[in-house]
Amino acid sequence: MNQLITGGYTTTADAIGNGMLLLLENPDQMALLRREPALVQNFVHEVMRHSTSVQGLFRRTTRDVTLNGVDIPQDSILHIRYGAANRDPETFPQPEAFDITRENASKNLAFSRGPHFCVGQPLAIQEMVVGFQKVLERMDDIALVPGFVPQRAPGFFLYSLTSLPLTFTRA
Predict the structure, then answer these.
(1) How much is the pTM?
(2) From CA 76, how far away is CA 73, in angstroms rounded?
């Protein structure tokens, strides 16, 4: 129950902050999203691929397995790094680039897979889609407060900003 409550709030808020910072760091992508608002869903998936708020979680192997020639015995504790998997160049060409037109952006592992797939994924995606639609409809000239340097919160699991003060004009 704790994961349902905390996972549904913090991670989505962090993802929204990460998405806004990505737009500010990639003004060409913000301009494209403003010109083509139908790209908003793919933009959200690309945010989750590029800068997922949950970088990984621990899992226990249920059986012996071999991955890339490495034997992993049953009951081993692994830290599955979604953030690293989302930057795999074999799956995502030019993985460091933030590209809201990336054709396979929705194939990211931000919400895990299999029995541990996040049940809140549809809600989180919808919250981000609607949130960014409204921000881009209602706010122009969005920028970081002059002199502000974004800082990441310390931690191993989450990729979040400590704050993101913005300036803007009403659209």
Answers:
(1) 0.91
(2) 6
